[in-house]
UniProtKB/TrEMBL annotation:
The organism's place on the tree of life at top rank: Bacteria
Cellular component annotations (GO), alphabetically ordered: cytoplasm
Gene: glcK
NCBIfam families xref list: ROK_glcA_fam
Family of this protein: Belongs to the ROK (NagC/XylR) family.
Name this polypeptide is given: Glucokinase
GO biological process terms on file: glycolytic process
Keyword Disulfide bond recorded: no
UniProt keyword list: ATP-binding, Kinase, Nucleotide-binding, Transferase
InterPro entries with a match to the protein in the record: ATPase_NBD, ROK, ROK_cs, ROK_glcA
SUPFAM superfamilies noted in UniProt: Actin-like ATPase domain
GO molecular function, one term: ATP binding
Length: 319
């Protein structure tokens, strides 16, 4: 029997686990709630208990596995297997994740940043089609990213390679980003960014669009509402959509010129708008791309959904 891999996707609300073959096929998956109480001190113990319980149920032992891979938020030291500053996990102090999990399970352990790991997943089994050069951009509450170049994840000197959300794109009315600087892609192309744009253009808009009425009535407006209205031809929603596409399309053109990957994969919650989102972004991307990049680097929507994290984590073991 060929050996298996465990992939773990550690998030602020849940921890997803999967047992995969070395070809990337998921054989078993499950999840547990993330307990962030007491400075997140229960998280690693809960993971160990869950893994050992599952192996017991399946009558598997450490000898059946090549390794365990995990994607984690925060600042990850890949060599030492530690994490610090994962504030959504309440991890303010250094967490020796690798040491604890290897001691308890007897299985080799590998770890990387969660956005990098999702990039590996989409590159290996998703829209990246296992090509050596793939960029993954995730549009959620913020904008995350990961870069695979010539088959390897790029980390950079301080581990900050692939911080795509902090490319400066907004020179019109730049908004302060959580990182401290202004005009970041994250402030105009994330779920939060779309709300920022809606407020901006609603202030300047004098017509009677449905989106304008919702804003004026103090209703909660999110990215889905804006895109749904834009699809229906709502005038204000279309203004927001075109500007969102302008910022994201220019960022993709810049990424294409620097890296010339086979694919820039767009995922995360905002990408649920599907081809409608992609068509607008692609138009701007093509208008602003270097000719050789335009004809070789394509844009695509992510295909793995919630499985990108566990699949990418598993691929860390094979790197």
């Amino acid at each position: 029997m060929s050996k298996k891999i465990i992939g773990i996707d550690l998030g602020g609300t849940s921890i997803k686990f999967a047992i995969l073959t070395s070809e990337g096929e998921i054989q078993e998956k499950w999840s547990i709630k993330t307990n962030i109480l007491d400075e997140g001190s229960h998280i690693v113990e809960d993971m160990i208990e869950s893994i050992l319980h599952r192996l017991d149920l399946l009558q598997l032992s450490a000898e059946d596995f090549i390794g365990i891979g995990m994607g984690s938020p925060g600042v990850v030291d890949r060599e030492k297997g530690t994490v610090i500053g994962a504030y959504n996990l309440n991890w303010k102090t250094l967490q020796p994740v690798k040491d604890k999990i290897e001691k308890a399970t007897g299985i080799p352990f590998y770890i990387d940043n969660d956005a990098n790991v999702a990039a590996l997943g989409e590159r290996w089994m998703g829209a990246g089609e296992n090509q050596p050069d793939v960029v993954f951009m995730t549009l959620g509450t913020g904008v995350g990213g990961g870069i695979v170049a010539e088959g390897k994840l790029l980390h950079g000197l301080a581990g900050a390679a692939g911080e795509l959300g902090h490319i400066t794109v907004d020179f019109d009315q730049p908004i302060q980003c959580t990182c401290g600087k202004k005009g970041c892609l994250e402030t105009v192309a994330s779920a939060t960014g779309i709300v920022n744009l809606t407020r901006r253009y609603a202030d300047e808009y004098a017509g009677d669009a449905e989106l304008k009425k919702l804003i004026d009535n103090g209703e909660d407006v999110n990215a889905k509402v804006v895109f749904d209205l834009a699809k229906e031809g709502d005038e204000l929603a279309l203004i927001v959509y075109r500007n969102f596409a302008r910022y994201l399309g220019i960022a993709c053109a810049n990424i294409g010129s620097i890296l010339n990957p086979s694919t820039i994969v767009i995922g995360g919650g905002v990408s649920a708008a599907g081809d409608f989102l992609l068509d607008g972004v692609r138009k701007v991307y093509e208008e602003n791309s270097f000719p050789q990049v335009r004809t070789s680097t394509k844009l695509a929507l992510a295909t793995l959904g919630n499985d990108a994290g566990v699949i990418g984590a598993a691929s860390l073991v094979l790197q």
